[in-house]
Each structure stands twice: as C-alpha cells, then as structure tokens.
Amino acid sequence: MIQVENLSKSYGDVHAVRGVSFEVAGGEIYGLLGPNGAGKTTTLSMMAGLLAPDEGRIRYDGVDLAERPLAVKATLGVVPQENALYEDLNAREHLRLWGGLYGLSGAELDAAVDRVLGEIGLGGRAKEPVKKYSGGMKRRLNLGMGLVHSPRIVLLDEPTTGIDPQARINVLDVVRGVAASGAAVLYTTHYLEEAQQLCDRIAVIDHGAFLAEGTLAELQDMVGGEEVVTLAGDFDDVLVERLLGREGVRLLARESGRLVLATAGGGGERRGAVELLSALFGEGVKMDSVSIEPPSLNSLFLKLTGRELRD
Amino acid sequence: MARSPNRVLLLFRKDLLRRRRSPLGVLAMIAFPLVFAGMMALAFSGETALPRARLLLEDRDDGLVGGFVKQALAAEQIAEFIELVEVGEEGRQMLEDDEASALLRVPEDATSRLLAGEDVELELVRNPAQSILPEIAEQVAATMADVMSILTRLVRRQVEVLDLPDLTELESFRDLTDQDFATISVALRHTFTEAGSFVAAPPIAFEQVTLGEEKRDEDEDEDEDEDGSQTGLIFLFVLPGISVYALFLIGDQMMRDLLEEGRLRTLQRQLSAPVTAGQILAAKVLLTGVVAAAVLLILAAIAGFVARTPVDPAAFAALALALVLAVTGFAALIYGVARTDRQGATISALVYLVLAFGGGSFVPVDNMPAAMRAAAPFSPFYWGTRGFQDLVQNGAGLADVAGAVGVLGGLGLALLAAGSVLLKRKVLRGGAA
C-alpha cells in the first residue's frame, strides 16, 4: 500500500533525509525508530504531502502523491507529533470538522464521530472545550482526528510523546485496532519498547538514513548475540588497548569518561560481559558505573551508531 | 472538485464557531467606536452645566445706580454664571447661613453721588465658606463696575450738555418735571444705544427675565433639546471615522488568525487533509468579510437610530461591500508580507493609525493643513469615513456614495488579489514541517 523510493530532502548543507526506501503492506505496522533529529518527522511530512521531497517517489496503492496530491491525501490519516487543536472547540466539533474535510457528512459522519469518540475514550467529555482537557486527552483527540474517516493508510508521528502510561496503552491499542482493520500504518517513535511491542517491521534511522530494517527478530539477529557493555570512568589508553585485546571484545564508542564495548558469547548468560567485568575488577580499575545491554534494538542502535537512542 | 465549496464553508464555520466562543475581540471592536464617539459627544456637547454663583443684591440706593446694577446682572450672558437674588437687610444673615456666594451692596446715596461727579463704592461681601463661586461673583461684579464707570462718564457728559436742574440739590427725583425726565430719558437712551447692549441690556431683555419661572422652564427645555441634538450630532460626526478604523482592526484580527494557525500547527494539519491552500485562504477571506460586514451593520444601525434619518439600503450595501473588500484586501496584503502574526500585528497597527489619521478618521480633514488635506484622499479611511458620514448624516443615496464605493472597491480588489498570492505562498510554506 505504501511505497517509498529513494526519498531525500536537504536544507542547505543539512541532509535531513538521505535515500530512504521502504514498503508497508495493508494491516502492517511499520516503525521508524530513531532519536530526535534523525529525520523521522521530515520523512513523514513528505509522505503526508506537506513537504516536497528533493528526490524520490511516494506512492499509495500505486498512485503517486506528487501527481494526484488531493486524491491521495483523501486516503491518508495523518496524526502530527504536536497536538494541532483549537482550544475553544470540543472533541465532537473537531472530529466533525475533520470528518467533513475528508468528505463525510450526515449519518455517516455522525456514526464515524461516535465510533472514534468511543475508541479514544472521550465519549463522556465530547462537549467540553479542548482547553479543559488534560495532555493525554488532547493526545487521544489528536489521534482520533486522523482516524475519523477510516483511512486505509495511517501516518503517525510519535503519537505517545508526553503522555501518561495509561493514555499510552490506549493509543497503542487504537493503533493495533487500525492495523487489524487492514490499514497500513507508519509509526515513528523514539521509544524502543513501543517499537518492539507494536511494530511488525522496524527501520532504524539516524542522520536521515536507514541503518537497519527488518522484523524485531531479524534486527536482534543483526546484533549477533553480542552484549553491549557501557563503562563510565576515566580509562587510559593502555587499559583500553588491553581490553580490546581480549577475545570477543569490540570497541563501539569511546568518549570522555565513557567507553562502549561489544562482548561476544552472551547467549543469554552474558558470559562475555561477566568475564570482562571480572577482569576489570580483578585489576582494580575504578569505574563510576557499569551497564550491560542484552541483545536488543538499543544494543543494535549502540552497535550501529555508538550512541544510545536517548542520546 | 465538487466538494470544494463545502470545505471552504466547513473551515469558515469552524472559524465562526471559534469567534463565537471567544467573542471578546470582536465585541471590543464594536464597542470601541461607540464608546469613543459617545465620550467625544459628551465632552464637546456642552451638556455639563457650569456652577452658578448665587449673588445677593441689597439695593439701598433704589435709584439709577441700583437699577443699572440689577439690569446688568440680569443680562443673559451674566445670568449663565450668576443667579441674582434681591434682598433687604436679611442679606447678611443669608450669607452667614451659606445660602449665597456673595452679597453686593449698592450704597444709599449712590445715584446722587454719581451724578454729582463723586466716586461711588459698591461693597461686595464674599462667603468664606465657598471658594470658586464667590470668585465668579466678584469677577462679574468687578466687570460690571468697570462698565458702569464708563457708562457714568458718558451719562455725565449728556447731563452737562442738557440744561437740567442741579441734580445734587434735589431732595428727590420727584422734584423733576416731566420734561426733565423726558430729556434725561432721551439722552440716556441715546447714550445706551451708542454703548450697546453689553453695557445695558435692552428693556425687552429685562422683560424676558421677569416673565416668571414658566417662561424660564420653557427656555431650559429648549436648551436641553438643543444639547441632546448637539450630542447626537457630535456622536454622528465622530462615529463614522472611528467605525472605519475599527473595521480595519477587525479585518486585521481575522486575517491574523491565518498566521496564528500556522504557529499552532492547525494550518499544517488542514493541509494534510484534501484541502487546498486556496480553500483555506478563501475561508479566511470569507470570515473577514462576514465579520466586518456584521460589525458595520451593527454600527450603521446604531448610527441610523441616533440620526433618526433613514439610511438608503442600496447605498449602505454598496458601501459596506466596498469597505469590507478594502478591509479584507489590506489585511491580506499586510499578512502576506509579514513573516509572523506578531510582525503583521505591529505593521498593521502602524499602517492603520497613519492612514486613519491622514484620512480623517480622528480629525476632520477640513481642520488639517493644506498638504494633509491634499493627501487625505489617498487613504482608504478618507473614503470610508466620508461615505459613512454621508449615509448616516445626510441620508445619501447610491449616487452620492458612488465615488467612495468605487475607490474602496477597486482598491480592495487589487489589494486582495495581491495579498492572496502572497498569502497562498505563505500557507504552503506554513505547511512545511
């Protein structure tokens, strides 16, 4: 349903998106996972028709967005990262407006509005102005506005940012329901857990380019069973050289006061990491903190970029 | 694109609903010209009555001088400031009881001494319990004394010319013959006529004062009607200019919303739906026009009610349409040029203030220097104000306001076209994430 080919966008010398390509099928939730500034929102903005790409093509059900923007937009449901709401209007008025803009009217519109109000859990407060809503309620309404017309393709830009765990569960449930109805869902996030729990396939993006793409299992395989050990403290070059001389230890990143290493032989027992730490303690090396990351998306991201997602 | 009109109306309805929920901005723009014009009318209509000093007159002379004093103080110009009350010996007590501002005493032999060429002193006793009013009484009495001094010199000359008995030797005026009185009367009349009504009010004026309270009440009613009419006239004179200014501010508010929506990201969200930039812009233009027209209708209805003259509906409709076009066009151009809504608000505030001042919205064009008078027609406020004034004050018809309609309509269309091009680009740029 969604076909993106070699999508690129630059702002002067800054390459926001670099040759991104992927496909999303109906009923699939495709995650774009990356830190802030990775290019997720720029990619989604181009896919929503809000931003013209420098290169590349975007097709929905085979129809090119650039050639028939209005016809394509009518099939999309877009949920922006920031709440785009009118404080003086209530939830029902928002949904009716957006349903109307997508061509719904009469009984069809009424039914759609009632359905979405139920899905996002705002049925009881549908007539209150948005300015009286909590952050979570606004987020859910923001989501509902993109779904009121039952779109076949849904683009969601970090829809759970800044909301409480309960509201997050509700949002994720709604997204699963949308995909279950057969819609193709593109979901951007910088939360590892969300991507792991929700997405059928995940693309890891950083600096505008895809670093890896696949199912969760495929991505975990890319980690190769290696654990990522992050050490905080002052480490001299001699010590680092000695650590890297150990079997199965690779350097991922070295910054001031921080050393990131990959250790082989995990297999769930974390043997490589344990052996490394034992050696360090044995030598009396002082460390401020130690963390061991099992094979995961974060360890993959660490492995690919030397940085954690939250950095 | 069969659904296009619906989307424009949907967006228009959305904005109208938002304005209804937060009506303060629009209501303020309706109230502003009414309050401003009302205050100006009250300030300049002269309805605020000046305080009158109560002056007691104790005429111990009962002769020519006392008569002069009474007549002078009863003159219409002085009666505006002084309420004259003739009293006897009780005057002093009344002053002590704070029943008057001052007591003026005419001495017993004032007339005889005056005619004998001696100086006469009028005694003024002020009420120390009052501050301003006795001052008024004193000023009036002093002025009157000056006038009487001049008058005395004139009369004295006439008496000297006439061959009359020595007035100072007479025990009473009764000793004068009818011929003496006639001669004196003719001489005095001749002198008074020369001196004018300021020195001594004509006898007919005296009669008016003494007609009694009934006549005075009628006069006061007429004065009140005059004051009310004057208030209305000033209100109607000021209202059109300020209303036109308020209309431009309304247009500014409505169009600014387009950029505010960009800041709030709702504009981008609309663009992610199957809605074109042109439709979004059309909805804002429609909103600006409808709200401005509604405000104009309310202000015109109030002006028509005050003027109590029927307003030509065709002329009003044509002028309103042209004015709304100008308002919308200006707002579109300003916000098409401005980079942000705040910048637009600053630009429009300055531009509108200059154009309104130069166009005669605040100060009548006729009162301006020649250079400003010549430049005034280049301001749309000039045409709007003039057209509105003609409608509500002079009952102008379509032909009378055709000039204003043509200028405002043409200017409005041109500006709206240019502004729309700029705004459309801005809307599309606003869609960039």
Distance between the termini of chain A: 33 Å
Proportion of residues in extended strands of chain A: 25-35%
Low-confidence stretches of chain B: 1-5, 197-218
Query: Percent helix among the residues of chain B?
Result: 55-70%
Counted by DSSP, the helix tally of chain A is 11
SSE order of chain B, one letter for each helix or strand? HHEHHEHEHEHHHHHHHHHHH
State the end-to-end CA separation of chain B.
Answer: 26 Å
Written account of the structure:
- The complex is a heterodimer of chains A (311) and B (433).
- By secondary structure, chain A is an alpha/beta fold.
- Chain A is built from eleven helices and 14 strands.
- Chain A has helices at residues 40-47, 69-73, 91-101, 106-119, 135-145, 165-180, 192-198, 216-223, 237-244, 271-282, 297-305, and strands at 2-11, 14-24, 29-33, 55-60, 63-64, 76-79, 153-157, 184-189, 201-206, 209-214, 227-232, 249-255, 258-263, 289-293.
- In chain A, strand 4 (55-60) and strand 5 (63-64) form a beta hairpin.
- In chain A, helix 3 crosses helix 4, helix 5 runs parallel beside helix 6 and helix 8 (216-223) packs across helix 11 (297-305).
- Chain A is elongated and about 75 Å long.
- The model of chain A has no long low-confidence stretch (mean pLDDT 89).
- With 433 residues, chain B is mostly helical.
- Chain B has a four-stranded mixed sheet.
- Chain B is elongated and about 110 Å long.
List keywords for this structure.
heterodimer; A: 311 residues; alpha/beta; 6-stranded mixed β-sheet; 4-stranded antiparallel β-sheet; 14 strands; 35% helix; 27% strand; elongated; B: 433 residues; mainly alpha; 4-stranded mixed β-sheet; 4 strands; 5% strand; disordered N terminus
